[in-house]
Amino acid sequence: MWQLFQFPLCPFSRKVRLVLGEKGVAHELVRENPWEQRDEYMDLNPAGETPVLVENELGLTLIGSQPIAEYFDETVDKAPMLHGNAAARAEIRRLTAWFDEKLFHEVVEPLMNERMRKRLVSRESPDTGVLRQAMKVANGHLDYLDYLLDNRRWVAGASLSLADFAAAAQLSVVDYLGALDWRGHKQTRDWYSVMKSRPAFRPLLGERMEVIVPPAHYDKVDF
User: Fold this and answer.
1) Whole domain around residue 32: which residue ranges?
2) pLDDT tens digits, residue range 93-107?
3) DSSP of the chain, one letter per residue?
């Protein structure tokens, strides 16, 4: 069976878990705290980042959310993530990168550092200025999602795709950390409610991090 080395609040781990769940790929979760930099884990992934997926019987080690997602999209026919013609696939990849890179670096990473790592690892107080800026930028990303969903059924087009799961994985972490103001974002809120209702999403919503409690609406489909 596949072993997924992951961290519960890592959005890239969540993206992979959603893809595996949608495609029905059986796997065992192994929690990995990236800041510990364990020798055994560094041997698997010298970058020390999550996620990593291992199948010992097959002798396979897959590293990183995008390579993992594309591997299973090429090997499992169920629930295609990258589909359509070349232009449609390019748009899916563009938006997946937008959420994995831009949303992550501008919003998710600073929030995780201030509200999670400082509390769990270094025992420091969060920088309120950094938090305010990340929350402000998060609202801009919700505006962009509203724009996309005004013109499309799903984030990247007419069909559910990897871009939807990438966006939902990142937003789920921001929402867990209580940094999303959903007011005035009906299009994105309705889309996210649909994403949260998918069976693959439910295990994520049921998990809790030690000492960090999400807002009351976090695991509710109707919020």
Assistant:
1) 2-75
2) 999 999 999 999 999
3) -EEEEE-TT-HHHHHHHHHHHHHT--EEEEE--GGG--HHHHHH-TT-PSPEEEETTTTEEEESHHHHHHHHHHH--SS-SS-SSHHHHHHHHHHHHIIIIIIIIIIIHHHHIIIIIIIIII-PPP-HHHHHHHHHHHHHHHHHHHHHHHH-SBTTBSS--HHHHHHHHHHHHHHHTT----TT-HHHHHHHHHHHTSTTTHHHHH--BTTB---TTTT-S--
